[in-house]
Amino acid sequence: MNEPTRRNCGRSLQGVQVSASRRSGTTDELGPDDPEPPERDGADLLAALLDGMDAALCAFDADGVVTHWNREAERILGWTAAEAVGRQGLAGWAVRSADAEEVEGRLLSAMHAPGRQVHEFALLTKGGGRVLVRTQSAAVRGPDGKPAGVYCAFSEVHAQIDLERSIALSESLLEDAGWGVVLVDADLRPAVVNAHAARLLGTGRTAVLGRPLGDLLSQGVEELENALTHVLADGAPPAPAEVWVAVRTPEGERRRCWRCGFLRLASPLAEEPVPLGVGWMFQDVTESKQAEQEAAVLRFRTNQLHRAARAAAECEDPAEAATVHLDFALAGFADHAMIDRVVGGALSDADAAGPVRLVRAAATPSGSPGPSLLDDGSGLPVRYGGGHPALQCVQRAGSVRTGAGSASGEEAREWARSRLWPADTVHALCTVLRSRGRTLGVLTFLRGSGRSGFERSDTVYAEDVAARIAAALDLAGASGTAARPDGP
């Protein structure tokens, strides 16, 4: 094919066949009086765009002559545009001669097929190696609508597979992942949310988008936003972080623990990393975290009981041993504690059904921390009113839990004062002291507003402590080392 014919075919590809051929030296010859073609600027721009593509691109005219060859094609195969443009087909240089007929037939068949066609085959490099590529080819039509050539974009198969894997991974994370995935924009607002994350947040996927985290969480927002801000500025932290949050739901707030990982998202198209946001991945680990905490509490309490038993064994006075048990039990468990003895020393189960009076045997200081103090031995009954939790505990021969509930401020203080407890008390647990089938008194633990209410596991621990204190008090009464209050 002569040069004018190739030039006409190039024009018929509607501007796709541009500067690669001209750069190779096969440019139009312009006479001294010929004006510069007005489309030169557009052609140069299109040539720059083609050379800047991430995918390799070549083009053929209707006769199978190579008309374009960009820089990425040169990088993959080693053939320059000057060496490729103008060749008839790919046989003998970019494709083995034995394979050329099949490869060229598959590529040029795109001229007469609708849409794009995808193929995989091996191309030859300039150095004699073989590269497996995946191609997408489509027809280029002239002004009359008839096929005028074919363009073919190709990339190495492994690079294409890597891209497809990345896309598949993204889609799987955002659809089927067993943990929450949220893409947060630079304003710290969710931009993409997968189904699992929406469930953990207690709302729908679209309802989350664009909303501040404070609309979704009532606790833990500051910690999460601080983490997201850090990732945007300095990158991902070295390890996952565990964050306790309170999720707002139509049923109320749910306190959850999330193990979170963060990744900074940067644009791959910018010369310098430009933060697009943060990839936030999290799992709900509330149950396992609570199990860990319960196990740690159980270990601590078991150690406290063991240490208390060893210390109490060194006490000559059984009443002092009872206060030792009380002091060890108080650590990490409650703010105040007191021991009340039954007036008369002990009650049988039949006697407990009638009126009961209690006298203070020992208590912790209510003003400042310190060891438990034994009562002065005056034997004056405590002025508990009817229905007091300590009296209920004796009558039931079982534990009683109570609290100020939703009361706050002066109401809560009045609630505590009416029960003869320190004014800062909001939670109480009364446990009966039993020994040898008799009721000796009541052990009371009190917590302030900085602690949560007593739970079932707390009751079990308090009952274990009460059994040890009851044994010590029973021994003190039997030995006569502690006064047995008889009351008026």
Give an overview of the whole structure.
- The termini are far apart.
- It is built from 15 helices and 17 strands.
- The chain is 36% helix and 26% strand.
- Helix 11 runs antiparallel to helix 12 (318-330) and helix 12 runs antiparallel to helix 15.
- The strands form three sheets. It has a six-stranded antiparallel sheet, sandwiched between helices.
- 32% of the residues are buried.
- The radius of gyration is 42 Å and the shape is rod-shaped.
- Residues 1-32 and 482-488 have low confidence and may be disordered.
- It is α+β, with helices and mostly antiparallel strands.
- Strand 10 and strand 11 form a beta hairpin.
Characteristics:
alpha+beta, rod-shaped, about 25% strand, about 500 residues, disordered N terminus, 6-stranded antiparallel β-sheet
Quick overview:
The protein is α+β, with helices and mostly antiparallel strands and 488 residues long. It is 36% helix and 26% strand.
Q: Give me the number of helical elements.
A: 15
Overall geometry comes to rod-shaped
**Count of individual beta strands:** 17
Rounded mean pLDDT is 83
Main sheet record: 6 strands, antiparallel
In the predicted model, the low-confidence regions spanning at least 5 consecutive residues are: 1-32, 482-488
Question: Which strand order spans the largest sheet, edge to edge or round the barrel?
Answer: 7-6-11-10-9-8
Q: For the terminal residues, how far apart are their CA atoms?
A: 129 Å
Roughly how much helix do the residues carry, as a percent range? 25-40%
- Radius of gyration over C-alpha positions, nearest whole angstrom: 42 Å
The helix-and-strand class reads alpha+beta
